[in-house]
Amino acid sequence: MELLDIGHYEQLQQDRKDWVESLLVSPQHARDPAWSNSIAVGSCEYVEYIKDVLGIAGKYKQTAEEHGSCVLREPLAPYTWLFIAEKMLLSLVSSFFHRLLFM
CB–CB of 50/41 below 8 Å? Predict the structure, then answer.
């Protein structure tokens, strides 16, 4: 509460209520894609830290800078193009065995 320069808990509650009410009537309370489409948003150091903490799960996440902040996101199409050739091969093998077994 020292950082907010608030002396007691009741004042913090009232200030928070006022902040929320003022944001709700503000025209700028729309959804912010940087927050809703990202895994992490903040300083570049923070985003890199989160990516490291995720370990192997964070290896292929994308970092970008947007509006003065860094964001960590999933790749746009994580699997679509990576496995097309593999899917086509599996389809051919599957149809081969299907014909062998049922025709």
Answer: no
